[in-house]
């Protein structure tokens, strides 16, 4: 057991040096794209496994069929373990969670915990887990901090697997932590459902233990590009993003989409994530940055970052006399953004990973129960965590107490009807569900569909 723990921890030391797992290629083969699928928004997109990319944003379109397409086959787990019986002496079916418990994302961590506990309590009220001899075992949630230090999410996974025997793992939220966690999954071999991460590359590692249920920044970029360049006809666009990994990776697909629409962004510039919702005095170059954006006479600015600092950036844009349209992704759309931006937030257009006006068929029941129990409104973070927890519970009940078979049951899911609506999966088990748009009106978030 000590050797297994050491092996699992050791992978953290080589996380970014280790190459990604490759698909077996015993012989050349033709790999055409599957036929188009109709998505819930009425848009037809060829799903070739690469994020459900719309035709007009497909790379190298019009130059012929590629020799090879990637991410069209699901990752395979060919290891042992499907015949391993459950251990004796169990008193509960443990499910782990890694989430932000403090810091800037603590509110999201609370929503994740609340939603998961609500789903588990409902499952226990319905009989818990049946199939461990004659016993009915309750489900229990074990929560750990994901970001206390670099690699904390991976350390937490090792502890939860080897010390507490979890059967599945939920989380994480911040994408740097999730990247470390995915590599550890290869050693601890426990299924992980990510309900809140947005980095498009997380499921491109070809690691066969990971699923994501919410649309990522790829889908946000596609929808924003269509809104900015096609629907609103913007020509002169500036990208103003956080000086962080989230700002860097989240905007890659938007920049690519702009270029493929033959409208590349005029300028990409950054603001510091340390800006609190009060002022920008800490940046000596702030005035020069505002002047540079203003001199370009943009008809749109796309912002990308956490809510509070981005709200400060938007307020500064307005105070500098930059009065064009402003757009951004759903992680901007928080109460911290509204507080920091003030009146400058009016008219801000954002994406959102689900439609909170309608949701799925169980959304009203979930929304009411969540508000009654926790005294708060359920947001997308809570809703997707609830769906992820229910998916994991269903897989455990179907497969029994065997991690490899639980993983197999999760990878059989091609779509899932949850409180968030219909979740569609690519072959890499990444959600390719279209996102919606909203805007700020009179200091409130209004959803447009």
Features:
Rossmann fold, 7-stranded mixed beta sheet, 2 domains, disordered N terminus, 449 residues, globular, alpha/beta, 35% helix
The helix content, as a percent range, equals 25-40%
**What is the total number of structural domains?**
2
Q: Distance between termini?
A: 51 Å
Kindly provide the name of the CATH class of the largest domain: Alpha Beta
Q: Give the second-level CATH assignment, the architecture of the largest domain.
A: 3-Layer(aba) Sandwich
What class, by secondary structure content? alpha/beta
Computed over alpha carbons, the radius of gyration is: 22 Å
What is the total tally of β strands?
18
Largest sheet: 7 strands, mixed
Biggest sheet, spatial arrangement of strands: 11-10-12-13-14-17-18
Give the topology.
Blueprint: H1 2-10, E1 37-38, E2 44-45, E3 93-99, H2 106-125, E4 129-132, E5 135-137, E6 139-145, H3 152-164, E7 169-170, H4 175-188, E8 192-194, E9 210-212, H5 217-231, E10 237-242, H6 245-250, H7 252-260, E11 267-271, H8 286-295, E12 300-304, H9 307-319, E13 325-328, H10 335-341, E14 349-352, H11 363-374, H12 380-399, H13 403-411, E15 415-418, E16 421-424, E17 436-441, E18 444-447
Parallel strand pairs: 3-6, 3-7, 7-8, 8-9, 10-11, 10-12, 12-13, 13-14
Antiparallel strand pairs: 1-2, 4-5, 14-17, 15-16, 17-18
Helix pairs in contact: 1-4, 2-12, 3-4, 5-7, 9-10, 12-13
């Amino acid at each position: 057991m000590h050797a297994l723990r050491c092996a699992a921890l050791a992978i953290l030391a080589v996380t970014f040096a280790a190459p990604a797992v490759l698909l077996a290629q015993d012989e050349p083969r033709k790999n055409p794209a599957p036929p188009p699928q109709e998505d819930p928004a009425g848009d037809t997109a060829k799903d070739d496994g690469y994020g459900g990319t719309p035709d007009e944003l497909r790379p190298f379109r019009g130059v012929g069929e590629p020799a090879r397409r990637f991410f069209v086959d699901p990752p395979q787990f060919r290891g042992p373990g499907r015949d391993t019986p459950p251990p004796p002496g169990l008193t509960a079916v443990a499910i782990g969670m890694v989430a932000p418990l403090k810091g800037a994302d603590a509110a999201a961590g609370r929503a994740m915990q609340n939603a998961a506990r609500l789903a588990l309590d409902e499952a226990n009220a319905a009989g818990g887990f049946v199939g461990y001899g004659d016993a009915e075992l309750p489900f229990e949630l074990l929560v750990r901090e994901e970001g206390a230090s670099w690699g904390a999410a991976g350390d937490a996974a090792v502890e939860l697997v080897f010390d507490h025997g979890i059967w599945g793992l939920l989380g994480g939220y911040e994408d740097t932590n999730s990247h470390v966690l995915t590599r550890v999954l290869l050693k601890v071999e426990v299924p992980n459902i990510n309900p809140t991460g947005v980095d498009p590359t997380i499921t491109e590692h070809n690691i066969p233990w990971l699923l994501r249920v919410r649309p990522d920044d790829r889908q946000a970029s596609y929808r924003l590009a269509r809104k900015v360049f096609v629907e609103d006809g913007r020509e002169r666009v500036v990208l103003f993003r956080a000086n962080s990994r989230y700002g860097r990776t989240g905007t890659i697909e938007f920049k690519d989409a702009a270029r493929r629409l033959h409208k590349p962004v005029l300028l990409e510039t950054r603001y510091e994530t340390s800006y609190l919702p009060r002022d920008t005095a800490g940046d000596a170059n702030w005035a020069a940055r505002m002047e540079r954006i203003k001199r370009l006479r943009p008809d749109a600015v796309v912002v990308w970052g956490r809510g509070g600092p981005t709200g400060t950036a938007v307020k500064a844009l307005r105070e500098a006399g930059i009065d064009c349209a402003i757009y951004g992704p759903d992680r901007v759309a928080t109460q911290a953004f509204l507080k920091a931006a003030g009146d400058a937030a009016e008219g801000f257009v954002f994406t959102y990973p689900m439609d909170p006006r309608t949701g799925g068929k169980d959304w009203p029941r979930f929304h009411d129960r969540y508000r009654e129990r926790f005294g708060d409104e359920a947001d997308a973070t809570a809703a997707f965590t609830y769906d992820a927890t229910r998916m994991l519970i269903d897989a455990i009940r179907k497969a029994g107490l065997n991690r490899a078979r639980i993983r197999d049951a999760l990878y059989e899911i091609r779509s899932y009807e949850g409180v968030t609506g219909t979740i569609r999966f690519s072959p890499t088990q990444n959600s390719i569900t279209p996102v919606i748009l909203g805007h700020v009106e009179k200091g409130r978030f209004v959803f447009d569909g």
